[in-house]
TrEMBL record:
Residues 99-288 form the ABC transmembrane type-1 domain. This is ABC transporter permease subunit. Its main location: membrane. Pfam families: BPD_transp_1 (PF00528). Keywords: Cell membrane, Membrane, Transmembrane, Transmembrane helix, Transport. It comes from the Bacteria. Belongs to the binding-protein-dependent transport system permease family. One of its GO terms (biological process) is transmembrane transport. The chain crosses the membrane at residues 38-59, 98-122, 134-155, 167-188, 209-231, 267-288. One of its GO terms (cellular component) is plasma membrane. It is a multi-pass membrane protein. It is found in: Cell membrane.
């Protein structure tokens, strides 16, 4: 009969202590993780309130009476919301026409930038040319030139052509964008060149390759550039202010600024118009934010 060793009797207590220590460390890790999540939630909530405060302030001001706006006491929320301010804003100025003009201009510019950007990026990435890198550098160099530096010369040019106060003067100068070309070319770098070679061997033309193969595979990048192009076109102010002279072609940004006058009621109506001006771009951003983020990072990693 074998004799058992004395230290074997201490195995069970030691195992229990190890399990208790493991459970204690696990609970501490879970507690730290929970505290970190709560801390990040608090920080993000504070940043969200700070970021959204101008929008919240505009909405609350649009629902106040003129007397509540000009009071010396700070009061964020209106005593009685005045939803009639939005109706009065549409009655005071043709906001409906201004919003329609902005939609026409923004959609046309977005489509134009997507088409021109896709074709230019395809040319720079897939077609062979001796000076294509130099030309691409010149295209990127235009991003460093501020729009205010060329706005006067552009105005004199379109005025000489008789384009003032029309849709095409609002749309044509912005049908292409260097940033769109750059983003799409960076995305196309993740495509294997053999894809283009195989399509050419099968008899596919360049235009057919772009519209039937390249664009369907570029949905993330196209979504990102479309959101960016629409928001930039919707928020244009200086160029429409200079080239539009009648309500038939004024955009909503210009129309809202025209509602401001010396009387107190116009301030309330202007805030109501600002809210209407912000809604389309805000909705487009909320709907397309996933495509915007995905498109901006889709070409950053090659696999």
């Amino acid at each position: 009969m074998t004799q058992e060793l004395p230290f074997e009797l201490e195995k069970v207590p030691i195992l229990d202590e190890l399990l208790e220590e493991q459970e204690r460390l696990f609970k501490q890790a879970q507690l730290r993780k929970r505290i970190m999540k709560i801390g990040l939630l608090v920080v993000n909530s504070i940043l969200a309130v700070v970021t959204l405060f101008p929008l919240i302030y505009a909405v609350t001001m649009s629902l106040k009476t003129p007397g509540e706006i000009y009071t010396t006491e700070f009061q964020l929320l209106p005593a009685v919301p005045q939803f009639s301010n939005y109706v009065n804003a549409f009655q005071t100025a043709p906001l409906g026409r201004f919003i329609l003009n902005s939609f026409i201009v923004a959609i046309a510019i977005t489509i134009g930038q997507l088409l021109s950007g896709a074709l230019a990026a395809f040319s720079f990435e897939f077609l062979n040319s001796r000076f294509k890198e130099v030309i691409f550098a010149l295209v990127l160099a235009t991003m460093m030139v501020p729009g205010e530096a060329t706005i006067v010369s552009n105005y004199l040019q379109v005025a000489g052509w008789g384009w003032l106060d029309s849709y095409h003067v609002l749309i044509i100068p912005y049908l292409t964008s260097a940033s769109t070309i750059f983003l799409l070319r960076q995305f196309y770098k993740s495509f294997p060149f053999t894809l283009y070679e195989a399509a050419r061997i099968d008899g596919c033309s360049n235009i057919r390759f772009v519209f039937t193969i390249l664009l369907p595979l570029s949905k993330p990048a196209l979504g990102a550039t479309a959101v960016n192009a629409f928001i930039n076109a919707w928020n244009m102010y200086m160029w429409p202010l200079m080239v539009s002279g009648s309500d038939n072609y004024r955009t909503v940004q210009i129309g809202v600024s025209m509602m401001q006058s010396v009387d107190s009621q116009s301030i309330v109506l202007m805030f109501a118009g600002v809210v209407f001006c912000l809604l389309p771009s805000l909705i487009i951003f909320l709907v397309g934010q996933k495509a915007l983020v995905k498109g901006l990072f889709s070409g950053s990693v090659k696999g």
